[in-house]
Amino acid sequence: MTPYELDMLERARRAEGDRVIQAFLNPPQPPGPEMREADPFSLRQALWQGMARREGTQMADRLVGRPYFAEERPFAIGDFTGGGLIDMVDAGTRYAAGEDMTGNDALAAAFGLAETIPAAAFLGRSMRGVGEVGGAAADTYRVGQRLASPAGYVAPMGRPSNVRMPGGQQFEARPISEIENATIDYLNSRGMDTAPMTQYAPFSEERARLIAAAYDMMPHDPQNPAVRRAYDAMIQETLDQYNALRNSGIDFRFLREGMEDPYAASPALGYRDLVENGRLWVFPTDFGFGTSASFDPSTNPLLTRVGRIGDKADAVANDAFRAVHDAFGHFGPGNPFFRHQGEERAFLEHSRMYSPEARGAMTSETRGQNSWLNFGPFGQQNRTALGADTVFADQKTGLMPAWTTQPTGMPDPDEERMLRGLLDQWINR
To answer: What is the pLDDT of residues 56-74, one digit of tens each?
Structure first.
């Protein structure tokens, strides 16, 4: 037997007696579909009752995602992490039930999963002593579930694989399973394509400049029937998306007067907060909605009161949109990036959740405004500016040309000449 098998046999003997030795030496058949979909706690049973090492590994993969060292050591999860996973399940459940546990069990649990998922290192700071390791083990288990990916998960091409946090730490940017599951459930409920993004189109600054010009030339026309229909559809679908997220347990909270922004050092800290705590702080609309003092956005439909969103009792539709866009566009798909390329990926991820009628309004509110911010008349200074120094686009209510809603669409030659004329004016101003 391998050292792994001997270790697992000894664990089984100590826990359940010699009767399991025969089960180990004469393993049962690999589990059928009903066991593969069983509760994660069946991992302990499967390993202790003598499942083949490969089957135990595959079950662990489904629980916590493919180990980061899997390409080099495809079945090495058992040597330390496999035992840690078993201890983790015990420690986490005993802690949740208020029972006692040993410090060694909890440490093995926390570090076992930390070796399997590097992002679980987020929780290292919470382990301040043996008295708290039970809580750390339970938290680590929750992080493992939040970052679990489907078997065979491959990050889409065209985005960074790691996110840098303040202080220089880098963590793998993985999807958050609770949000991704909400995405799939929502798309299924609408009969929409659930296939995940496998590749983002290369970012085109030239195209972004044309979209910036299209937004600048777009009239503010909130009374236009087509514009109103698009915004009404966007608002309703945004609220439906929020309800899908609320059902997943995400805790949305809005900044309050006098409160320090917990993500001031980097908006990517929202990713960490979601992974650790299942919580996301949102910048409320009444703290900022447009820039120019000469522009009155009061007729924008997104200022419609919609009731409670998160912990905000009197939220407007734009509050709901900020919450769901951060979740479905940025953090959920593993895209915790907020400069122009991250915003473009967020648009591509989130826009696919809107109907064609609503997508035009959603495009104006995201891709249009972001393109104007980064590649419009103040683009050069905005791309390196802090929030207080950024010149934001006016919150106009309107629809840009249809090509702007498409992943790689371009204007026709006549429109392109008109847009380039405006770009030349910006350069020469």
So the answer is: 445 445 444 443 333 333 3
